[in-house]
Amino acid sequence: PRNLTFPRFKDRHSQEARTTARIAHQYFAQLSALQRQRTYDFYYMDYLMFNYSKPFADLY
């Protein structure tokens, strides 16, 4: 459409740290084994699509 505009900034948070496997591991470490598994199950398709590695070995 003619009135469609895009933001002028390229990346609003370009200076912030990106999520890494180490950061994901730190967050998962704060959860119980059951909470870790449920979280992994919820995001399972993301792990497949983006080829993420499991943050903990006890996840199936």
TrEMBL record:
GO terms for biological process: carbohydrate biosynthetic process. Keywords: Carbohydrate metabolism, Glycoprotein, Golgi apparatus, Membrane, Signal-anchor, Transferase, Transmembrane, Transmembrane helix. GO terms for molecular function: sulfotransferase activity. Pfam families: Sulfotransfer_2. GO terms for cellular component: Golgi membrane. It is found in: Golgi apparatus membrane. Belongs to the sulfotransferase 2 family. PANTHER family: CARBOHYDRATE SULFOTRANSFERASE, CARBOHYDRATE SULFOTRANSFERASE 8. This is Carbohydrate sulfotransferase.
